[in-house]
Amino acid sequence: MVKPKHIRRAEVISYRRSGVYTVLTVSAPGIAEQVRPGNFVSFSVGGEESGLLLRRAFSVLRAEERGVYGATVDVLVAPTGCGTRWLARRRPGDMVDVAGPLGRPFRLPKSPANAVLVAGGYGVAPLIGLAVALRARGCRVDFAVGASNADRLFGVLDAKRNSTIARVLTEDGSLGERGRVTDVLPGLMERANSEVAYACGPMGMLAAVAELAAQRGMPSQVAVEESMACGFGVCMTCVLPVAGADGTTRMVRSCVEGPVFEGESVRFADVGTVPSDVYGAAGSPGDGEPEPYSGDA
What we know:
Rossmann fold; 5 helices; six-stranded antiparallel beta barrel; alpha/beta
């Protein structure tokens, strides 16, 4: 088990609505200073009297110093269930329990490179900070941001501010171009001479981005959106099949070994299953002798 660096009571500093989302800012010294693009934090939800036992995980949208409040963390909340609706209703002065930073962040190029960032819905959250970090390293950044409709788009202005080209799409055409990000991605990669792809969003989108990148012979990194019940690597609810550098597939935890993986290493077609050739499965290599994930995938 990998423990979070900090678990603390945090004060809600502010909130704002954006479409269907709520942006929540909490004071989180000790956490915010260590956040890297792709890390996430988890919150206890429901309050002390609640029967909601499982934490909720959120990619960090922004981590920064805010005057008298010290270091703060912004998260993008999509209120879809009891826990997320409870969190979205927190107001300034309320206290919440937050743990982090968690997970493995995106890896940045060692030298300047042309990067294309692909976001679906609230998957844009970790990519905003990534774009800033890439530009600070002298990388060219191009963005494709999409969602089902205008209310589910977020971060469009930030994407435009931090990129050379920003393509904005909605499936219903209510904002930007009509279509999906994967519709314009081949042309965007060609025009920008992209050398590395980063993506966060629905699994189907991630699979398509990884495939398009592989067709161009370029690496990709994807932040998966598997449900994380604990966020610490204990419950094993967020496992998915990932092939390591040795060619062996292992069931790895999105919250600890991820959420960022090499795109071509994730066996997207087998997500939600345990492939028969996975390490440790009955009749497979390593049957009865589980081997820890090495982090090379």
